[in-house]
Amino acid sequence: MSHFWKKDRLKLHLKSRKNNFGLELKFALTALIFMFLVLMLAPSSLAADIGGQASLISNLSYSDSELDNSLAAELELEWFLPYDFPLDIQNRAVISLDEAAEDKVDLWFKKLYLRQELGPFTAKLGRQPVSWAYGALINPVDYTLGAENLEEESRAKFVDGVELYYPINWGSGLTFVATDVEGKDHKWALRGRTTFRGYDLTASYVRTPVPASTDFERYGLTAKGDLGPVGVYGAYGLWQNEEIDYDIYQLGTDYSYNFLAGSQLYLQGEYLRLEGVEGDISSFDFFNLGAAADTGSTSNLENNLDFFNTNISYEIDEFSSIGIMTVSYLDDGSTIFIPNYTYLFGSNLQLELRGSIAAGAEEEMLGGDAKGLEITLSYTF
Question: Could you give the CA distance from residue 374 to residue 1 in angstroms, rounded to a whole number?
Answer without folding.
Answer: 9
